[in-house]
Design brief:
The chain has about 100 residues and is α+β, with helices and mostly antiparallel strands. It contains 4 helices and 4 strands. About 35% of the residues lie in helices and about 35% in strands.
């Protein structure tokens, strides 16, 4: 069953954060993931909008968690942590 990562965070270092996207996209392809939405101009209807908002579809929960734990992702995750604030990364399951 497909699952979705819903990510939102504020980018606090644009120059460093620019190094994050390209290698992450390559890693996502390794796990058959698809970026469904990625937006730097989201509008808050309720709550507080973050600078970056993304929805990423994975074919399964196992694939999503393997990607997150992949040794290739660990330095990228550290980079993201250094360049962002107020990070939320939520894994949700598709409706059956």
């Amino acid at each position: 069953m497909p699952v979705y990562y819903i990510n939102s965070y504020d980018i606090i270092n644009e120059e460093e954060y620019a190094k994050y996207g390209p290698p992450v996209l390559r890693l996502l392809h390794k796990y058959s993931a698809e970026v469904l939405a990625s937006d730097l101009r989201a509008k808050a209807i309720e709550g507080t909008a973050r600078r970056m908002n993304a929805v990423i579809k994975f074919p399964s929960e196992a694939a999503a968690l393997q990607c997150y734990k992949d040794p290739e992702y660990q330095p990228l995750k550290e980079l993201r942590w250094r360049c962002t604030d107020n990070c939320n990364m939520i894994l949700v399951h598709a409706l059956e």
